Amino acid sequence: MRTAKLAGHDLHLDEDRWKFVAAVLPGVILTALHATMLDLPKADIIDAMDSDHYRIYWIIGSYLFGAATGMAMTGFWSGRLGLYGCYFSALLLFVVAGGSCGLVNDTLQMVPLRLLSGYGTGLVISAAMVLIWHQFPTDHELAMAVYGIGLYLGALMGSALGGFLVHFMSWRSLFLIIFPLGGLVLLLGCQIPLRFTRPSAAPKPFDPMGFLLFEGWVLTMMVVVVMGQYWGWFCSPFFACWFMAFSVVFAGFVLWGVLARNPLINLKHLSVRNFGLGLAVKALFAVNLYLLVGFLSNYMINLRGYQWWQGALVFLPGFVGMLSTMLMGAHWGRDCNRRTRMFAGMAAMAIMTGYMAVHVDLYWSKIQLAIAFVLWAAGAGFVVGPAMLTIFYGLESSRLADAAGVFNIMRTLPAFAIGALLLAVMAQSTDFHFDRLRLDITYNRPTVSETYERMENHFAERGSHPAAGKKQARVLMARWVHANANALAFRTTLGYLALIPAVGALLVLFLQPPKAVLKETAG
Length: 523
What we know:
Blueprint: E1 2-6, E2 9-13, H1 15-36, H2 42-48, H3 57-72, H4 74-81, H5 83-100, H6 107-135, H7 140-168, H8 173-176, H9 178-189, H10 208-231, H11 237-259, H12 273-303, H13 308-332, H14 338-359, H15 366-392, H16 397-443, H17 445-461, H18 466-508, H19 514-522
Antiparallel strand pairs: 1-2
Helix pairs in contact: 1-6, 1-7, 1-9, 3-6, 3-10, 3-16, 4-5, 4-16, 5-6, 5-9, 6-7, 6-16, 7-12, 7-13, 7-15, 10-11, 10-16, 12-15, 12-16, 12-18, 13-15, 14-15, 14-18, 16-18, 17-18
């Protein structure tokens, strides 16, 4: 037995449990990193695969579809292989399939590999959550902080790492790097004692109807949110058919999850007040986190022209800020102030997202953006531990694997759906602002004419022919208008994104105190 201090706690863990935590957490970090690595280099992959904005969703969507399926199957596989057997097998699948994506040259060739790697990812992160939960029986909030360090901080740095790899190597390195890193994580996993790998004595039976309804819901949801703008939303018969199918399948999935005896996804857990509200808060938290990181990466790299390392340096203080507040919450947090910490964290995320929405333009300082981001990340760090503890607090051990799958589904699918809708909003907002700026130019023709003349003189002084100078001036003005339209669209989109954690902060007010939760779950 060894005594160690983590986040101010004296932890009495034997050697086996130290090895266990050290083996499981790197797997969570690896899958979380890879999940966001493709955010920035998406354009490079589109070009390399000879694809386009919509066909690239075959790659993105297959990964998400596989991950959602893996999350849903966590309870089934953990009952047969044991939690760690499920984790280790899924990690092996992720490493082999994910790394092999770097060896193919076509979108259709990559789709099945992405599907399998996503399936492994879903099982890894869900099984790992329950495994880490069991290693801290007297301090579950610290367990969730440890898990959150691997999951959310890994995701936070995934975009920057993906940019680095593509800039210095190629898009293939995003996948090929999984082989050496995954091999190291697998070697760590081999050190786990066999007594942690025992399967359940009464494994959960497979639910074919629940599986088909769940797969149908995820598939139709992805088609609706991705292709809606392309088809024209409710103006298109294609969209209307898919939306009707989505509505019917989703209703069937919900009814089956509530009424069936042993459904694949047990929605009866939602009757526990804090479980349902906690899931909603955590879903809103994840939506804001993943989408803000993605939008800011796009803003810095594609609009402002930052180098990859500059974008990474802007994110780095946020990484430190989130880690600091997560550990502070694990050290000083108590059940009595859990709701207060969650409310303050969600409110800080909403305020700082709104602040960034107001200040985003073509000239915003990197330092000011980094300060705003670190304040946002500090607020996010206060939410991670207490929100996850709120969801699982009071649940029986036999229900944790299923609940972990539901938790991770609600963490990923809403972020994907709302992200796709906000991208459509951003595209329409860009067009709106571009047309408005063109009208401003028309109404202010004397000022614009003077600007054109100055630009033409600028190019002429540098040796351009007068006709070429006029073309160059017009191209420069068009680029400026497009860039400003994009910046204004970022403002609009981030403004909508700020509303999401604000709603989460309001939901926190309706959570019950821990003693009431124990009475409800016992009853």
